[in-house]
Design goal:
By secondary structure, this protein is α/β, with parallel strands linked by helices. It is built from 11 helices and 9 strands.
């Protein structure tokens, strides 16, 4: 073999070795992307940024957040469904993910087959609140008034298909009443109008009335969780008030494209779990009324399946649609 041929052969051998090394490199060996389905500044975005640095340190790679709001989370989920199946792209999904198959006329992906469940992130109870000028001192007062004149009492939420919307619909179903749903373009304008007294009842994350208790701008009547919220310890649950088994939370989880490496799923699940247990992160979550629940990917899939079934029933009963 000529000297030149020996050099070429050696170079090819080294290149082949590098290729094998790269293919067998442990995940992750490059930055990880999180697609967030809301604009910067909301609870979903803020919570992702709270654990961003901690997860990055655990994984040993940067975590890059990309906000893709709109479409009840469809835009963000579609982006991750179409991402390379290498395990470096994840999306946050929220409550509407379980509702979209029933609520929307069509989806650009299959909510089950095209995504890989990765990790549950957090859940938060909601609250039914009223403006202090309203005569309803208790949840039963509101129920009694609604029964006298069905559909006459407006209740605001952050929009069709939001946690606040579904909490109000499930409450109405349980109580056997009908309220007039007023959907806003976000939780902030709904809260502003409720505080101003322009709408009498508000269905929102429990942190909203919690922040308004001291100035007396909202009067929370009940919360939707299985237990009382630490943000509203004196406010009873709907279950306590005569509706046993009532339980509803808005929630956030992580998914990836279908077919990504199991190693990426398992390590991301572990990193999110560990990050939420760090004292500074746990303290921030507590302040926001968010509760992390550890779930395996299989448990997360079962949870989403159950949420999808529950919401499909209420969507059909209430005839909820989004164009």
């Amino acid at each position: 073999m000529s000297y030149r041929a020996m050099i070429v052969a050696a170079a090819l051998s080294v290149a082949a070795g590098l290729g094998v090394s790269s293919a067998n490199a442990e995940w992750p060996d490059q930055p990880v992307h999180w697609i967030v389905p809301v604009s910067p500044g909301g609870a979903t975005d803020v919570s992702a940024r709270i654990i961003q640095e901690a997860v990055s340190k655990i994984l040993g790679q940067p975590v890059i957040i990309d906000n893709k709001p709109g479409g009840s989370g469809v835009i963000a989920t579609e982006a991750v469904v179409n991402a390379p199946k290498t395990g470096y792209d994840f999306a946050l999904i929220y409550t509407s993910h379980a509702a979209n198959p029933s609520m929307l006329k069509s989806l650009p992906y299959d909510s089950v087959k095209d995504v890989s469940p990765v990790a549950f992130f957090w859940r938060a109870p909601l609250a039914i609140s009223v403006h202090p000028s309203q005569p309803y001192q208790t949840l039963q007062d509101l129920i009694d008034a609604a029964r006298v004149d069905p559909g006459s009492i407006p209740i605001a939420s952050g929009g069709i298909g939001t946690g606040g919307h579904f909490a109000s619909e499930l409450f109405q179903h349980a109580a056997g009443i009908k309220l007039q749903h007023i959907p806003y373009k976000g939780a902030a304008p709904a809260t502003t109008d409720a505080i101003a007294g322009n709408v009498p009842v508000l269905s929102s994350n429990a942190s909203v009335p919690g922040a308004q208790l001291e100035p007396g701008q909202l009067r929370p009547l009940a919360v939707t969780g299985a237990e009382r919220s630490p943000l509203l310890p004196d406010v009873p649950t709907i279950a306590e008030l005569g509706y046993p088994g009532f339980e509803y939370y808005e929630w956030i989880a992580f998914v990836g494209p279908a077919g990504i490496p199991q190693e990426a799923i398992d390590k991301m699940n572990h990193a999110i779990s560990e990050a939420t247990k760090q004292p500074d992160v746990a303290a921030r979550f507590k302040e926001m009324g968010l509760e992390h629940v550890d779930m395996t990917p299989a448990e997360l899939q079962a949870f989403i399946d159950n949420e999808t079934k529950k919401l499909s029933e209420i969507i059909k009963e209430a005839n909820i649609t989004v164009e």
